[in-house]
Write a structure and sequence with these properties.
The protein is built from 5 helices and no strands. With 191 residues, the chain is mainly alpha-helical. α1 runs antiparallel to α2, α1 packs antiparallel against α5 and α3 runs antiparallel to α5. The model has no long low-confidence stretch (mean pLDDT 88). The longest helix has 85 residues. The N and C termini lie far apart (81 Å).
Length: 191
């Protein structure tokens, strides 16, 4: 049912946004490490590793209830050169965290991860469109049900009015007949 699908779609979009946010923060952390070209401390190591894993975990989340098109795009994202290079460079920074001297090109990393972020944005846009379609379908169904209920209410109201008119007419005829009989009987008694 589209009504049930809307909250799930919104939650899925939030999960995808979390993946994108993690990737964006990963970009800043890794570029900072590459440019500084010095060893990183345990806290930064943990942050970089958590952000990389955050992207992967979000994209594997059981909470994702997404369109087939988005599932295909996620599979393509995971297999893409941009994400593979991003992970490779990130892993290299983590591997050499205690030494520094990464020997990596920050501009190349920026290019790879920015393209990966664009891919994530495309997946999110696909899901937003899917959610909008579900909302529109739900609204269409609600409008149709409203018209059906309104028409039923109108027909029921008309039927009730007609029924009441017949009932009142029947009562009026019966009372009028009784009055006429009483009047006829009182005139025959009076004469």
């Amino acid at each position: 049912s589209p009504v049930v699908g809307v909250p799930l779609a919104i939650r899925s979009t939030e999960i995808l946004e979390t993946a994108k946010e993690s990737a964006g923060r990963l970009r800043a952390q890794v570029i900072g490490a590459i440019v500084a070209n010095v060893p990183i401390d345990a806290a930064r190591y943990k942050t970089i590793n958590s952000l990389k894993e955050g992207v992967d975990l979000s994209l594997k989340s059981q909470g994702l209830s997404i369109s087939l098109e988005s599932k295909k795009k996620i599979a393509a994202f995971k297999a893409s050169n941009n994400w593979s290079k991003t992970v490779e460079i990130t892993d290299s920074v983590l591997k050499n965290a205690d030494k520094g001297n990464y020997g990596l090109d920050s501009k190349a990393f920026y290019s790879y991860i920015t393209a990966a972020l664009d891919d994530l944005a495309d997946i999110i846009n696909t899901e937003l469109q899917s959610t909008e379609d579900k909302v529109n379908l739900t609204l269409g169904d609600a409008k149709q049900q409203l018209w059906s209920f309104s028409l039923f209410g109108l027909l029921f109201g008309c039927g009730l009015i007609v029924s009441l008119l017949y009932t009142v007419r029947g009562i009026t005829k019966s009372v009028t007949a009784t009055i006429d009989e009483l009047a006829a009987s009182s005139s025959s008694v009076g004469t």
